[in-house]
Structures are given as structure tokens and as C-alpha cells.
Amino acid sequence: MCEIFYYPEGVEVDADDLKRSAEHNDEGFGCVIMHDGALMVMRSNHPSLIGAFAGMRRDLPGPAAFHCRLATTGEVSLSQMHPVQVGDSETYLFHQGTLPEPYVSEARHHCRSDTQEFADVLDPIIREYEGEVAEPPVAVLNNLIGKDNKMLIMTSDPRYAEQAYVLNRDQWMVTPYGALTTNADHLGKGKGWDEALCPDGTLYRWRIRQPGQCAGCDLYGCSRGCMPKATPPAYRNETESRARVREQAN
Hints:
- By secondary structure, the protein is an alpha+beta fold.
- The protein has 2 domains: 3-185, Glutamine Phosphoribosylpyrophosphate, subunit 1, domain 1; 188-249, no CATH class.
- Helix content is 25%, strand content 23%.
- It contains 6 helices and 13 strands.
- The protein has helices spanning 15-24, 49-59, 103-110, 114-127, 138-145, 239-249, and strands at residues 3-7, 29-35, 38-44, 64-68, 84-85, 91-96, 150-155, 164-167, 173-174, 180-181, 193-197, 203-207, 235-236.
- The strands form 3 sheets. The chain has a 6-stranded antiparallel beta sheet with strand order 3-2-4-1-10-9, with helices on one face. A 4-stranded antiparallel beta sheet has the order 5-6-7-8, covered by helices on one side. Strands 11-12-13 form a 3-stranded antiparallel beta sheet, with no helix packed on it.
- Strand 2 and strand 3 form a beta hairpin.
- Helix 3 (103-110) crosses helix 4.
- The radius of gyration is 18 Å and the shape is globular.
- It starts with a strand and ends with a helix.
């Protein structure tokens, strides 16, 4: 399901948090750093990107983001790692979650990720504001992706008032050092997520609910009285299937 970290200007990077997240979300890494009004974008299939990102961020304190991927749709390949470019603009999208239909069906049909399919929809929405300084319609985008998904849009496009837009911000966590993150995977095994190997060899992994999360829908601030989910598993990671996908990608 991935984990996104967003670092507002001046907020330091905790490389240990990124490494703990990468233990669980190990299917691709990507980052963006804003410097001198431009976006520096890097992607890698190896967690060594964490060290490079943390080192660069010490010298470049502008807004930045890092993404650790656990693929739910699309291939495990460099071309589908985040951030995803929005059209041909200097705007990039990070995503955590699985989007509702029709994005998943379209993604499977086109052998792409659901995030890439959404980026195609996002581009014309943003372009409606071309020629004027305007904030992307965050409320509209929140409704499109649903509460179960979290996104970060980073842009160097001068048409927009901000360099970063956080979708479904009320569902993000704030770290003690001031970064925003989509979930608690960075707390590590036993605190943010856990796992168990079943007798048939299947590895089950599940996220540990954090204070304030609904026991049924996992949303923060939910007052609907959702029935609790069975835990474990909150979701199933079929490691053998994922290994085959990696082999095909290589």
C-alpha cells in the first residue's frame, strides 16, 4: 500500500524512518526535492536512494517528498515508480492506497498502475486553471479518490499558489520532527506493521492501528461505528506472486 513522506521547507529527514518503511514497502522508491523553483526527481529500485536523498536534503532545505512503494496494481518496474508525472507539466503525483473503479480496471487493461491512470484525469482538471494563479480544486480531488487514498501533488508550475498540495490531509500522521506521512509503517515491525508466516508458506502482513484510527474502516476521526475488521490480516501479501512479477520486470 506504500508510504509517502512529505517534508515542508526546513523539516529534516529521518533516514531511519525511511529505512523502516522500506523494509515493508520494498517495491520501488522515489523522491522529489524543490530547489531554486525547480523539481529534482529521482527514482530507484533500491533503498540506497534513501541515503542519497537524505544527504541532498541536508543541503537543499526546500519542500521535499519520499515514496516507498508496495505495488497493488501495475508492474514492479522503474517506469511505474512514484512520483508520477502529470501530463508533460512540471507537476508530480505521489499516491498511497488503491483507487476506486474505474481506475484499477483501466490500469490492468493498459498494464499501468492506478496512479498513472489517475494522473491522466488530473491533468485536464489542473489545466482548467491555465493562465491564472489558482489552487487545484482539492475538495473535488478528495472526492474523486475517496477517503481511503492519500495523495501529494508537488509542482513548480507558477500558475499555482502553493508548491505542494496534500489530499485527504486529515488522514495523514505528523511525525515528532514535523514531516507528514500517510501511515505508521515507518515505526517498524511490531509498531507500525506486523507479519506472520502461515503453514502454507503465505506471508500475511497487516498494519497495526494507531491511536485515533477506527477499528472498522481504519480512518481517523470516524464516528460511523464501523464493525471491527478481522486482524490479522488487514491485507494479504502474496510474496511468491510478487517475486514472479519482479523477475518479469527484470
